[in-house]
Automatic annotation (TrEMBL):
<feature type="binding site">
    <location>
        <position position="56"/>
    </location>
    <ligand>
        <name>CTP</name>
    </ligand>
</feature>
<feature type="domain" description="tRNA nucleotidyltransferase substrate binding">
    <location>
        <begin position="155"/>
        <end position="278"/>
    </location>
</feature>
<keyword id="KW-0547">Nucleotide-binding</keyword>
<feature type="binding site">
    <location>
        <position position="161"/>
    </location>
    <ligand>
        <name>ATP</name>
    </ligand>
</feature>
<dbReference type="GO" id="GO:0005524">
    <property type="term" value="F:ATP binding"/>
</dbReference>
<dbReference type="InterPro" id="IPR006116">
    <property type="entry name" value="NT_2-5OAS_ClassI-CCAase"/>
</dbReference>
<feature type="binding site">
    <location>
        <position position="170"/>
    </location>
    <ligand>
        <name>CTP</name>
    </ligand>
</feature>
<dbReference type="InterPro" id="IPR043519">
    <property type="entry name" value="NT_sf"/>
</dbReference>
<dbReference type="GO" id="GO:0001680">
    <property type="term" value="P:tRNA 3'-terminal CCA addition"/>
</dbReference>
<dbReference type="InterPro" id="IPR048833">
    <property type="entry name" value="CAA_C"/>
</dbReference>
<comment type="subunit">
    <text>Homodimer.</text>
</comment>
<dbReference type="InterPro" id="IPR002934">
    <property type="entry name" value="Polymerase_NTP_transf_dom"/>
</dbReference>
<dbReference type="GO" id="GO:0042245">
    <property type="term" value="P:RNA repair"/>
</dbReference>
<keyword id="KW-0479">Metal-binding</keyword>
<keyword id="KW-0694">RNA-binding</keyword>
<protein>
    <recommendedName>
        <fullName>CCA-adding enzyme</fullName>
        <ecNumber>2.7.7.72</ecNumber>
    </recommendedName>
</protein>
<feature type="binding site">
    <location>
        <position position="119"/>
    </location>
    <ligand>
        <name>Mg(2+)</name>
    </ligand>
</feature>
Length: 454
């Protein structure tokens, strides 16, 4: 199958149908009316804006998450924005099906309406990057820029998004570190089409800087400050935000996810297939069989996590995993890799070269000229005298679970600051995980997570 045939097969599966479009447009209109009525009823000066893929018509078929931003005037103090914005979000959500309060830079409301997830996010009504006060304010500008520049290439964005999802490189969340939807839109606008973006996978990496807003000419000093900062941070790409010269759109894109993209693009161009867009879920194997094959061991710390969203929790879990890696290395264990996440409870998995370490202790004995002394001399291999008393070396084995318990007791591990109490009370499992983590354990120890040729 050639590339064009693959695209022709994929597009009908990812392009929303007319019925789906009608549903989305109706849903957005209903939400806008509810928001405007609630704002008027509360006597507030605020405007509702839809942002994200629904507003830009770059959403994939079946993916209808709505982002409704509640924009307040620039002269509203930040604390008032947070407090009033949360009240407004709650009031709107009371008219929807269900909701909960979530936390990022400031609280927002995550609601559900007609089977669709709806985020109600307070922000400032910005007209320029110079007005931006919080991280979410740019979203209104992002939506406007994409609508002005996409020029009918919506399906090209859909192809790139679906490809990135299929190869597990989509999502800018901290626990993913992949391509964001906005980054995908910029790359299509910059290069023209899905296939052109794929063809530039190597070129983009070497070119390094993409500047669709032409900031390096318009705001050279500010833009160069961004470039230098991002080069120092060793980012795979620097994509100057076309609406703000202070921001790299690809700041959250990690080398690993770009590496996956890099290799999968080559594979796809050599052997085009629908499987890159819609991969079959691999069957997880037996993690214990993998451990036996490799002769390694798995330590899992399992604990209740504080009430944090994954974008806040995962970095602290990663910091803790790196802390265990350093601490256990000092204690004579080699950590071959680690994995973190949350499946009900939070977990840290560590693959080790051994489960026990040899340690030497000095064993004091009796005086050498006694019966016990002669017996002590016979039983021990390494024996010496200090004065008239015998001493011997004795090798003992210490289990890694006991070593971890001692390290935690003595504050010997650098942990994420909000996880210290939770990790100290963790269940420490050796070569065993509960059923809900069996697939995760296999994917981790088998390296299927990063099996670029799989």
């Amino acid at each position: 199958m050639d590339v064009e045939a693959v695209i022709a097969e994929v597009l009908p599966r990812i392009r929303p149908t007319d019925e789906e479009r009608a549903f989305v447009e109706g849903l957005m209109e209903e939400l806008k009316i509810i928001a405007e009525e609630t704002i008027e009823g509360m006597g507030l000066d605020a405007k509702p804006y839809f942002v994200g893929s629904l507003a830009k018509d770059t959403y994939l078929a079946g993916d209808h998450d709505a982002d409704l931003f509640l924009a307040f005037p620039l002269d509203v103090p930040l604390e008032e924005l947070r407090e009033t914005g949360l009240k407004l979000g709650r009031a709107i959500a009371e008219r929807l099906d269900s909701y909960e309060v979530a936390y990022a830079e400031h609280p927002y409301v995550r609601a559900s309406y007609r089977g669709v997830s709806v985020d109600l996010v307070p922000c400032y009504d910005v007209k320029s990057w110079r007005d931006v006060k919080t991280a979410v304010d740019r979203s209104i500008l992002h939506t406007g820029w994409v609508l002005e520049n996409l020029n009918g290439r919506n399906d090209e964005v859909r192809l790139l998004k679906r490809f990135l999802k299929g190869i597990n490189a989509y999502g800018s969340e901290i626990h993913v570190r992949g391509f964001s939807g906005y980054l995908a839109e910029i790359l299509i606008i910059e290069h023209g089409s899905f296939l052109e973006v794929l063809g530039k996978a190597d070129f983009m990496l070497r070119r390094k800087i993409i500047d669709p807003g032409n900031w390096l000419k318009r705001e050279y000093e500010i833009a160069m400050k961004t470039v230098r900062r991002e080069i120092d941070a060793d980012r795979p790409l620097i994509v100057m935000d076309p609406v703000d010269p202070r921001r790299n759109v690809a700041a959250n894109l990690g080398w690993e996810r770009y590496g996956v993209f890099y290799f999968k693009v080559r594979e796809f161009m050599e052997e085009p297939s629908v499987r890159f867009f819609f991969p079959e879920r691999p069957k997880a194997g037996n993690y214990l069989a993998e451990l036996r094959r490799k002769g390694t061991h798995l330590v899992t710390l399992l604990f209740d996590a504080p009430g944090m969203i994954d974008d806040l929790l995962i970095p602290q879990l990663e910091r803790s995993a790196r802390g265990f890696e350093r601490a256990l290395s000092r204690e004579g264990f080699r950590v071959l890799g680690w994995d973190v996440g949350r499946k009900g409870k939070a977990f840290i998995m560590l693959e080790l070269d051994r489960r026990e370490r040899e340690r030497v202790v000095i064993k004091p004995g009796p005086e050498f000229f006694t019966v016990n002394g002669r017996d002590f001399y016979r039983k021990n291999g390494r024996v010496w005298l200090k004065g008239k008393r015998l001493f011997a070396e004795k090798a003992v084995k210490e289990n890694v679970v006991d070593v971890i318990a001692e390290l935690l007791e003595k504050n010997g591990v650098a942990l994420g600051k909000n996880l210290r109490a939770s990790v100290r009370n963790a269940d420490v499992l050796l070569d065993y995980v509960p059923k809900e983590l069996e697939d995760e354990a296999y994917i981790f120890v088998s390296r299927e997570k990063w099996n670029l040729k799989g």
